[in-house]
Amino acid sequence: MKTKERYVFLECTECRERNYTTHKRLKAAYKLEKKKFCNMCRKHTSHREKKL
Ligand SMILES: [Zn+2]
């Protein structure tokens, strides 16, 4: 059986730059939020998922 996954952007919450793509399971209820380095802000910021 195949695991259904979809791709999402991780968007910087400060400058709205979409710096990363990742994937998660289709039925996952949670929202992804990760501390990532933002090239525009030049620091670590929270990145939130956005649909591709
Ligand atoms: Zn940023």
TrEMBL record:
Family per similarity comment: Belongs to the bacterial ribosomal protein bL33 family.
Keyword Cytoplasm found: no
Gene3D superfamilies in alphabetical order: Ribosomal protein L33 (2.20.28.120)
Record's keyword terms, sorted: Ribonucleoprotein, Ribosomal protein
GO MF term (any one): structural constituent of ribosome
Pfam families noted in UniProt: Ribosomal_L33
One Gene Ontology biological process: translation
Gene Ontology CC terms: cytoplasm; ribonucleoprotein complex; ribosome
Entry protein name: Large ribosomal subunit protein bL33
Native species: Saltatorellus ferox
Lineage: Bacteria, Pseudomonadati, Planctomycetota, Planctomycetia, Planctomycetia incertae sedis
